[in-house]
Amino acid sequence: MFRKIDLKKSLSSCPEQKGRALERCIVINSLVALLSFLWLILMNKGVFTLCGDYNAQAIPFSVGMHKAILNGQSWSWGIDLGTQTVGAYSFYGLGSISFWITMLFPVSATPCVMGWLYILKYIAAGITSFLYIRQFTRDDNYAVIGSTLYAFSGYQAVNLEFYTFHDVTILFPLLLLEFDRMMKSGKCRLRDGKPFILVTALSCLNSYFFFVGQVVFLLLYFFLRYGERNLRLTLRNLLLCGIAGLWGVMIAGVLFLPNILFISGNKRSSIQLLLSQLFPEPKMLLYLLKGFLFPGEAMYDSSAVYNQRWTSTSAYLPMIGMSGVLAYLHQKRRDWLSRMLLVLIVAAFSPLLTSAFLLFTEANQRWWYMLILLMASASAIVLEQRSGEKNNDVLKTAVFVNMAVLIIYYLALNLMKWSDSEKSLVCHRGFFFLIFAVSLAGLLILRRLSSGARHFCLTVTAWTAVFALLTTAYVLGYYRFADGIRETCTQKIRLYSQLEPINDQYRYIDENMMLYSEGASGLRIFSSTVSDSIVHFDSLFDFYKQARRLDKTSYAGLAELFGGKYDVTTDPKGRTPLRTYQVNGKNYYVVERNACPIGFAVDQVITERDLKKIDVSERGLVLLRAAVIQPDDRKSVSDLAPCVSYRDALNAIQTDLETARTASAGNSHLDPSDNAGLVFDSDQEGYSPSGREADNLSKSSPGKKVDLTDDELQEVAAERVASDSSRAVKNFRRTSDGFVCDSDNSSDSLVYFSVPNDSGWKAFIDGQQTEIINSGGMMLIRVPAGTHRISFRYTTPGLSAGAAVSLISLCALILYVLSDWKKRRRAALRRSFASCNR
């Protein structure tokens, strides 16, 4: 039986010994991190790039945040069609310490700095987990092993594509550590909870998404570790812990409150509580089991079960796998750690219980880092206490069971036929064998060492570091090179850093790399957090995917409606380039295409209900002529624009097609070929006017349509763009908090702006506020005849209130700290006088 850990004795161990152990922790984790990352940084001449979301989101969004803060922007034009800065970037690290470190450097240095910050993140995760785990070990050298297991776990490896996730794994051990210190006597003392309040604030600022799961975890942790039979004491402790946690959240209110308001209308944050999700499907069960048994892999190209799945499904501990956890649980000890491990492992295999860590909004394994910290703690305890013969036999048995399950799993997946449509669940046999061999080799080495190796702790530490390096470097290399293509991320950074706005009324037809430019914006930006108004617009085209946005080049008329006038290409196809840029000896050209300005007057409206009766392939064309409105708004605009039916809208398309052909025969200036799908790279989705080739569209039922060919769709779009452009607002200029423009119409009119209608917008005509009408997620206003100055100003909802709450809460904490310090000082002086009087 494992000996009982004396926490007080552990905490009072020799400070010099603890200092040496901390130094070893820093050295070992630093070496592994440096060796894992340095070769990629040097190979790319200082710039650290990977693939997927790291290149497309982490780097450009860090650059975008940097520029937005320097320019004082409350509204970021560079995120899709535009999104509030706080809501757009908080999920991507706006409140993280690592991002604010990049603010110390020039924005151009961000891609270089982030690679070194990744190394620091791994080192910091090792240090904070060491501080937590050493509570449970008498020899801090075993806590060093636990820190390496945590910092270089499979979870850390698979999430290399998600840069901001690694900030969370740094702060979480500190959160638990300070919670334990606040509860160290089994009785919560708020005066001991001041560090916990600060760490709670940092965690909440860092990521509201992960913080929700941490709150759920802390509730479990409280009841399973500190729950008492004395109900009164338990409720008292819970109340004081809640006060401390709420205090920390209030300090983080400057970001937390605006983000809660921002995501409250997002369908991705809606609760989905289904009892049918209590148990996983058989295939998902195998995938979850693989996450515990095998080293982590690149999520976009896994070797078995699911080839692609971005759910962060890995809990592998370098070398030892699940052996330490199995050995700890095998003792059937009724301690808090056993209970926590059992509850969390059961939750890990239940989609319903897993979703509890995200308040039942979705089920993924992004909370597993919390389980991994306890797994690493249990493993460190087991390794330290193997000295007894009985304990050593338990560890050997656990290693044998882990090996047996691993081998059976590997053989089963290779030999069994899964279904008629899916003959095998192994996607890449060679890579699957490789991770199997690494996992098996680690267990064989551990079994050999547990048989009586000299300098057991030192040897296990060294081998753990070796396996941490192997598994981390393998995933890094796979993310960087496995697709067989040397990514041109660095080349794109150089190109897009040169781009500049040509006309504020228009956008580029490009993606996230536009954030490197000096103020230009694109309309194909991929982000998980955008304005709810953009989600509303996507629904007009029957697009309801949670984590992706409708490609604005999917249907005829969409790119034109949103001002997608400029395109970057290597082949101008006979067109006169507006700009020419050269990168590494290769020329890139900015060319024009037909597009509406961001603001223009409309003379028709159509209800959402009628719009959805039209086939999705032709709805974009309708919106080029008629602004979409809700039925309740018909009366407010009826005097300015008639509300057309879907039949009228379809007839107008046919009429415009005939007009376009007549204009073309008469050598008009219209050139439909301008909309023929210019794209920057061959790996991007091409322009598909009919939507037939778009691979990211939700299914929709066929509606009424004219049934035009792609060329005819382009002809109608070109005709309508010309008409809309003649009614454009003038002198359009973007500002840090919105935009301004001038109107000069001969009669009262409705002016449409292809800018998301967030609740923070206020519109003014000649300084007088006017009503904003929701137009399918975009904005529509009434403008009187004559010359007028129109201005839109954006104020982030909840930001001022959140900042006030943060300031008041932080000041209250400072006063509380000072007051407590004075009380302690007076008490110390009284004790000193009392001892002198004796």
Give the topology, please.
Elements: H1 7-11, H2 15-43, H3 52-70, E1 75-76, E2 83-84, H4 85-89, H5 97-102, H6 110-133, H7 140-151, H8 154-158, H9 165-182, H10 194-206, H11 208-226, H12 231-251, H13 253-263, H14 282-293, H15 323-330, H16 336-348, H17 351-355, H18 368-384, H19 389-415, H20 429-449, H21 456-481, H22 489-496, E3 507-508, H23 532-539, H24 558-561, E4 564-569, E5 579-583, E6 586-592, E7 599-602, E8 605-607, H25 608-611, H26 616-623, E9 627-629, H27 634-637, H28 646-665, H29 710-725, E10 730-735, E11 738-745, E12 749-753, E13 761-765, E14 768-770, E15 773-775, E16 778-783, E17 786-794, H30 799-837
Parallel strand pairs: 3-4, 8-9
Antiparallel strand pairs: 1-2, 4-6, 5-6, 7-12, 10-11, 11-17, 12-16, 13-14, 13-17, 15-16
List keywords for this structure.
838 residues, alpha+beta, five-stranded antiparallel β-sheet, four-stranded mixed β-sheet, 30 helices, 17 strands, globular, disordered N terminus
